[in-house]
Amino acid sequence: MIVATHLRTQNWDDIAMRVHSVTPSRAYAAIHASHPDIDDFIAMVSPAAEPYLEIMAQRAKQLSRSRFGNTVSMFVPLYLSNLCANECTYCGFTMSNRIKRKTLTLEEVDQEAQAIKSMGFSNLLLVTGEHETKVGMAYFKETIPRLKRHFPYLMMEVQPLSTEHYRELKQLGINAVLVYQETYHARRYAQFHLRGNKQDFDWRLETSDRLGIAGMDKIGIGALLGLADWRTDSIMTALHASYLQKTYWRSRVSIAFPRLRPCAGGTGADTFTLTDRQLVQLICAHRILHPQAELSLSTRESAHFRDNVIPLGITSISAGSQTQPGGYSDTSTTALSQFDTEDNRPAADVAAALVKQGLEPVWTDWLAGYGKA
Question: pTM to 2 decimals?
Answer without folding.
Answer: 0.93
